[in-house]
Amino acid sequence: MEWRRLTAFEAAILDKLLSTDFPGRPELLEQVSAALVRQIDGEGSLEFDAKSTAVAPVKRSVPIQAQAKDLDGIWIHALLHVVGGRVKELEFYKDDSSKILQMPPLERWELMKLE
Q: Where are the domains of the chain?
């Protein structure tokens, strides 16, 4: 797939993930703001090409995640992966590994800070 800018939903879920304070958040905001992405699976997971030279001092490779229920009541997760201080991936998956039926509206996503 080709590198592209974030869609409105992708930008909104990233804004939500980065709306709470945690170590490395300012640097990740900088990285995400100018990054290009490409979809890497059928669920909408993204790989990042961050142009920023900022390095995020995160304590975990997944410092923040969110979850919301799909139409069938199964949890969908959105995990922000950071490798070497650089935003690497936004991963979407469902608890039972079934296909995501419909991405929940942004207001239904609950943040889970992992730091």
A: 8-113
